[in-house]
Amino acid sequence: MAEDIRFSKKAATLTHASARGKVKRNAGNFTRGSQLFHHEILMTWAGIRMPLYVWVGTAVLLLCVLVSLTFKNHEVQLVLMKLYAEAWGWVQLNPNKPVNLTLPSGQMVQGTMSMVPYHPAVERAWAKAVQVSISAGLGAAFICVPLTVWFVDFSKRRGTDILTERHERGAVLVTHSELLASALVV
Q1: Which domain holds residue 123?
Q2: In angstroms, how far is the first alpha carbon of the chain from the final one?
Q3: Cα–Cα dist 124/58, whole Å
Q4: Phi, psi of 23 (to 5 degrees)
Q5: Which of 61, 81, 63 is nearest to 132 (CA)?
Q6: pTM of model > 0.85
Q7: Would you say 82 and 126 are in contact if contact means Cβ atoms under 8 Å apart?
């Protein structure tokens, strides 16, 4: 019996009636515009998610490394104390709450919560924190921009490969000569 062209697993470019060769831009099967909008949002997020996760992870890693290398004793606590004092003022709690502020020299300064963000040691630590944060963000961008360019290129190539992959659904369209050869050898 002749070898069936559908199951021969011979390398051949097949064209199916249902092949996904071109992406249709009009999604006619959606019943509401909100479904189409939701689908577009999900597909966009699927493409953006991995580069975004890599960038955030790289920025956090660089931030941790730079903080551990840059900050001296008690400077991290001063930055956290500034954030705490800013949050305290934002929710309008008692600005005269007494606090003890430990400086990098080990000296303890007594004051109020409203004084904390304006103490010179806190301002210096905050300026250093802003500089380290910007450096981590820029470092992550310099590392991740080439990775993102590679990822976009890889995704486009993989998307093209996926569109050319053929899955047999329905009739197989083959050349006339292949059809005759298969039909005549019975």
Answers
A1: 34-156
A2: 7
A3: 26
A4: -80, 125
A5: 63
A6: no
A7: yes
Q: Is residue 176 part of a domain?
A: no
Contacts 24+ apart (CB under 8 A), 152-161: 152/51, 155/47
| Per-residue confidence (pLDDT) for residue 178, from 0 to 100 | 83
User: CA-based angle 103:105:107, to the nearest 5?
Assistant: 60
- The pLDDT score that the predictor gives to residue 43 is 83
- Is the CB of residue 55 less than 8 Å from the CB of residue 144? yes
Residue 4, domain member (yes or no)? no
Beta partners for residue 167, in sequence order: none
Rounded Cα–Cα distance for residues 116 and 86 (Å): 9
Domain count, the chain: 1
What is the C-alpha separation between 82 and 77, in angstroms, rounded?
9
pLDDT of residue 163: 67
What gap in Å lies between CA 168 and CA 20, rounded to an integer? Answer: 11
DSSP annotation of 91 reads: T
E strand spans, 11-161: 15-16, 98-102, 108-112
| pLDDT, averaged in runs of 10, over the chain (186 residues) | 63 52 51 74 86 93 95 89 94 91 88 92 95 95 92 84 61 78 73
Q: Domain for residue 51, yes or no?
A: yes
Three-class SS state of 54: helix
> Can you tell me the distance from the alpha carbon of 145 to that of 111, in angstroms, rounded to the nearest whole number?
46
